[in-house]
Design goal:
alpha/beta, Rossmann fold, 6-stranded parallel beta sheet, two-stranded antiparallel ribbon, 9 helices, 14% strand
């Protein structure tokens, strides 16, 4: 089974991060040993000094090169991923998409309605490449801007409602979609390092959201266990 991580800055991570992708790799190693592969066209972290995704300075230097693969980008959202997901799924043979997008879209590019349209375009393109592809999608999670920008907070809330409806509408037996749930304990003060990007505890909680959704709905892997 081939897993593809799709996301924005919270998924690609910055130089020196562990990333929640690393936490999921550890989880897959313990629950699906030998029965999975992580795929994707990229492996790097975002390097602030270069303003480019060129760093390999993961917090764990033993993080295997093959497990570092992803389709995530600093400043990229549903708007950017919808046009490229079809080709990526076709090229990698991805079976399961683990998707964390939306914050960047709403913050810089599209409103909630337009972002929901891109969710549907993304799903259609992925299915055109693999009609049996599965996806677990994370809503826009708590973030610092929503705390001081009421209009932005309202757009996040509206998008999350639209996303839930889209996932319900688009879910099929052949190509199931799941909406993940971030643990209620997710706290900006302790689980992020800047009010948006996850630190170590936040990374574990994002991995928990994806792992538990797959296990509960599909019996895939197992429940996420903190180290």
């Amino acid at each position: 089974m081939r897993f593809l991580f799709v996301g924005d800055s919270m998924t690609i991570g910055s130089a020196g991060d562990w990333t929640w992708r690393h936490r999921m790799w550890r989880h897959l190693e313990s629950t699906l040993p030998g029965g999975y592969e992580i795929v994707g066209p990229r492996t790097g972290l975002y390097d602030p000094a270069a303003d480019a995704p060129v760093s390999q300075a993961y917090a764990d230097p033993a993080f295997p090169a093959a497990a570092r693969r992803h389709l995530a980008g600093w400043g990229e959202g549903w708007l950017h991923m919808a046009p490229v997901i079809g080709g990526t799924v076709a090229e990698t043979g991805a079976d399961v998409l683990l998707v964390s997008l939306g914050l960047i879209d709403l913050g810089f590019y599209t409103d909630s309605g337009q972002t929901e349209e891109n969710v549907r375009a993304f799903t259609a393109a992925a299915r055109a490449a693999n009609p049996r592809v599965r996806a677990v999608v994370l809503p826009v999670i708590p973030n610092v801007r929503a705390g001081y920008d009421p209009a932005f907070a309202a757009e996040c809330a509206r998008f999350n409602e639209l996303l839930a409806k889209a996932v319900a509408d688009l879910d099929t037996a052949a190509s199931p979609l799941l909406l993940a749930t971030v643990p209620e304990s997710y706290d900006l003060g302790t689980d992020t390092y800047d009010g948006t990007h996850p630190g170590p505890t936040g990374e574990h909680k994002l991995a928990t959201a994806f792992a538990d959704a797959m296990h509960q709905a599909w019996g895939l892997g197992g429940p996420y266990r903190l180290p």
